[in-house]
Amino acid sequence: LWRHSVITSFGAQHVAQEASQDANLAFTAGLLHDVGKVVLAATYEKNYTRMFDPTERGSISLVDWELDQYGCNHADVGATLLENWKLPKPLAIGVKYHHNPAAIKAPLAACICLGNAIAHAFEDRTMTLEPIKPEVDQAMKVSGLSIDKLRGQWNMIQEKWEFVDMLCQLHK
Prior knowledge:
Largest sheet: none
Helix content: over 70%
Number of strands: 0
Shape: globular
């Protein structure tokens, strides 16, 4: 989760810079975007964490599985936590809608969504970013960015990913 959050934060930061948004806020939002997963894991333990494995939950997305099981998803839980911590409202809104940025057309949510997609691309080693998921396509429209613009940032993000990956390897 730490590695994913850090690379999401770098991705969100770069996306925000390209979209003329607050890059520092996007970086912070990227770090916190999945904090709701920590709360759900602490609350439901193995019942929740086993669902990180797609073979356990089948074809349903983690977000949809969370909604079905708990009536909310990790983005809702994370946003509520950030609100309770009295963090800036745009941060909580960005976290809440990072899986559905078109719902309120929030540029920060779009930056987090794209940063999240970038992180997943690096994590599964495909090293490609295609707007194949509806949420990624939505985020591209909300942010006003093209896939080519993001590809232009790819090498810088990859350098940061490799640095984060190296740090994680030192910890093992």
